[in-house]
User: Fold these one by one.
Assistant:
Number 1:
Amino acid sequence: MGRRITAADVARSLGLSRATVGFVLNETPGQTISQATRDRVLVEAKRLGYRPHSAARALASGRSYIILLLLPDWPVEFSMRAHLDEAALVLDQAGYSLVTMTPHPGGQAVPLWESLAPDVVLALTSIPDEQYAAIRGAGVTTLIPGRDELSFGEELRFADGPRLQIQHLVERGSTRIGFAGTADARLADLTDERLRLAESTHCELTGRPLAAVARVDEENAAATVAAWVDDGIDGIAAYNDNVAALVVGAAVRQGLELPTRLAVVGHDDSPLAGLIVPSLSSIRIDSAGLGRFLAELALYRAAGAPKPVAGPSPSATLVRRETS
């Protein structure tokens, strides 16, 4: 492997001072260097294969150009991947790297906010007080959501989804509606949150509670669907498309006609929804918009970029397919 090309190599090749080349390559403000000289330096640096040394760049600028995103202990499903991909793209275009970590209680690894010295720490949920203090104690000054104007709350929960599921099932004529939650313990809080909204919406529209609630997985899907059918359940709002697919698969194997006998609506409108047979009605949300919004908040604080004028839309859209 060849020796790393440095700014000094570029300076020697051009017969310029190391300081002049350094000012150009580091984009140092306030320097009276002609555009012609800047262009020469950049062209020669590219020809020689110069790459900035990240540690030196961070030392010189006081920035690490790293954004650390704290992930809750959730499975990385379609909606999560969509907003992580969008956040990484927005940050990369601005010269920043997105790094993720999932803090675990009792974990022994050195937290990345200590070893990476990130410019900003982001989180998808509120940061507990003890963890917040530890991150600030490591020298990180910008945390989002913070304890200031960059706090955000329920508007990023996309709470319209379960409401729209129930409204659609009621409007299409389902009279005994159930909620299929996930059995994944990591998602218990989110499942409960969506269940509460589905329950309140059903009560508003019908004056009655939901007819059934169950946590569905591969082992109990068949028995759960059979019990629902025996109880006259004719509509299911599912936590997400994966759970909805389990319900649809069990129903098809039992010879049920969908949606005449059982209507099913998923959530997230993942690629799975359009691939299974019968195709799955689902709720589409702006997952990529959340990633873009978080990245723009980070750049606002880290690089002085414009502050986002608004967050992603919390509204949801029903995509109606064969199961409803």
Note: Residues 190 and 239 are 9 Å apart (CA to CA).
Number 2:
Amino acid sequence: MMTKKQRFWNVLKILLALFMIFGGVQHFIKSDFYPPFVPTFLPFTLMIIYLSGILEVGLGILLFMNKKYAKFGALGIFCLMILFLPIHIWDIFSSTPAIGSHTVALIRVPFQFLFIAWSWKIYQITSIKNN
């Protein structure tokens, strides 16, 4: 029987999975939105956009699987959010933010930290042996 706390974190795990899958699919549906987010020194911009979309969808799907795979999915999301953090911080100071405006870029950074903490907590919970 699941406790209220376990049920709460299970719902949050599902929400994180859905968010990641939705975000990953957007890389294919609206691929023209993402090039400003890819650092200009990186080649093959469109390939990076598609690969990051595949990665986001894959990590989201892992959260729906058993604890062993969900743990890797959560850790992968954590690492991905850490990797994307400098891009979002850079966007705040950019003369033309990729997200559209300085206000939105500024609002986005705390959400990035939220996703970092959220995915780390899901990783910790899925790493517990007898939970």
Note: The first helix runs from residue 4 to 29.
